[in-house]
Every structure is written in C-alpha cells, then in structure tokens.
C-alpha cells in the first residue's frame, strides 16, 4: 500500500522497523524523549511522547522507559552521567527479557492504564497506573485538564491509583501530565514505588464515573 509519509501516523515508522528487523531482534527497548527535546513545540512534543508511550501496546516484545527522572537531565543529548543513568534504568529489563531473571517488583516505568471520574458530580478523577506510584502535592501543577493548568488543586495516592481533585466539578474530557517548555527538571514528578519516573501522557480521555 502506497502512503503519503508526511501524513502517516508516527507509529507507522515503528511498525515498519519491527517488521524489517523482527527475525533477528528478541526484544526492543525504547526511551520516551525528554519534554521539549530539541526545542520542539510543546503540543507536538507532548503528543509525540504519548505515541512513544503507546507503541509497546502494539508489540509484545517492546518496552519503553522514561527519561524524566534522569539527572542530569537532557534534551536532545545527555552528559555521560545521563547515559549511565539510562543504562542503569534499562539493564533490569534486559535481565528480565533476555536472560530470564525473575524480579520481585516491577522495573518498568509506571504507565497510565485508565482514567475516569470517580463520582457523578465529576469532582474527582482517578488515574490508574500499572504499578504502585508515589506523589508529592507539589507535583499537582504538572496535570492539565483539557490542556489548561490550574484546574487541579490537590491529589492523593493509594497504591496504583492517583486521585486528582479539581478546583470545581469538571466537564474536562482529557488529562495531560507534563507539558514540554513549561516543566523544569527541578519540578516534582510522579515516581513509581520502584524509584522509576512515570511515563508522561497527553490528552488521555477521562471516562465516565464508575458504579
């Protein structure tokens, strides 16, 4: 099928790469790029990171690691200490997938799996991660409802669920975590209980209240 590459979804490149290399590659390891890497516009960059977060859902032999917690931080490139941190983050996954090492706790970056209002009044939003996470109140400013900041005033975490409290009952349809160009590496973020920074996400739909 002939396509216009300028209009192809970003994930098509990953699909083609995996098809071409699949006979020889046992597992793929990718990194979600740094917010606003190489000076990309915030909206485009935020959506690109979300695509990177989602691609492994199409391939059972692909993992994605966050870079948000790497210090010193990067952009397009990192200092040697940053690349060392990247190796340390990915090594447990290599051990797991390539050498069959059984691990006692998750070693991947926490990823959002579900988002929904917890009440019919829409005054709380539950973010469900694939593993336990930790959260500081100072990180509340990293969340955006329908792209707008200042709409969330507090949060509370229990296990793998982070509950956001909007300033008022909300009609927001999407939630974003981290905007490039606004976030700074000294800003608080969401961490996994395993010490790995959570993957960023962009414009994730908020589901209806669960009964």
Could you give the distance between the termini?
Answer: 45 Å
- Topology, number of strands: 11
Q: How many domains, in number, for the residues?
A: 2
* Approximate helicity band: 10-25%
> Helical region count?
3
Poorly predicted spans: 1-7
Average of per-residue pLDDT values: 88
Largest β sheet strand count, sense and barrel closure = 4 strands, antiparallel
State Rg: 18 Å
Oligomer kind: single chain
Shape summary? globular
What percent strand?
A: 15-25%
Helix/strand/pairing category: alpha+beta
Strand order of the largest sheet: 3-4-8-7
Helix and strand sequence: HEHEHEEEEEEEEE
Give a structural overview.
The chain is an alpha+beta fold and 211 residues long. It has 2 domains: 5-99; 112-205. It contains 3 helices and 11 strands; from the N terminus they run H-E-H-E-H-E-E-E-E-E-E-E-E-E. The chain has helices at residues 11-21, 42-54, 80-99; strands at residues 28-31, 62-65, 112-117, 125-129, 133-134, 143-145, 152-158, 161-166, 174-177, 191-192, 201-205. The strands form 4 sheets. It has a 4-stranded antiparallel β-sheet, with no helix packed on it. A 3-stranded antiparallel β-sheet has the order 6-9-11. A two-stranded parallel ribbon has the order 1-2. The chain is globular. The protein starts with 10 loop residues before the first helix and ends in a 6-residue tail after the last strand.
């Amino acid at each position: 099928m002939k396509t216009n590459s300028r209009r192809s979804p970003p994930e098509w490149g990953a699909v083609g790469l995996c098809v071409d290399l699949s006979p020889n590659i046992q597992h793929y390891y990718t990194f979600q790029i740094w917010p606003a890497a190489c000076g990309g516009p915030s909206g485009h960059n935020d959506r690109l990171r979300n695509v990177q977060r989602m691609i492994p859902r199409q391939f059972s032999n692909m993992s994605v690691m966050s870079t948000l917690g790497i210090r010193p931080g990067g952009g397009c490139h990192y200092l040697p200490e940053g690349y060392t941190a990247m190796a340390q983050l990915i090594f447990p996954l290599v051990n797991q997938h390539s050498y069959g090492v059984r691990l006692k706790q998750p070693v991947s970056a926490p990823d959002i799996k579900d988002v929904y209002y917890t009440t019919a009044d829409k005054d709380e939003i539950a973010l469900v991660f694939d593993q336990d996470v930790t959260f500081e109140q100072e990180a509340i400013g990293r969340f955006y409802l329908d792209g707008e900041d200042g709409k969330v005033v507090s949060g509370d975490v229990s296990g793998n669920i982070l509950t956001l409290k909007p300033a008022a009952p909300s009609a927001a349809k999407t939630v974003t975590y981290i905007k490039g160009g606004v976030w700074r590496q000294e800003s608080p973020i969401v961490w996994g209980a395993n010490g790995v920074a959570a993957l960023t996400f962009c414009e994730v739909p908020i589901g209806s209240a669960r009964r």
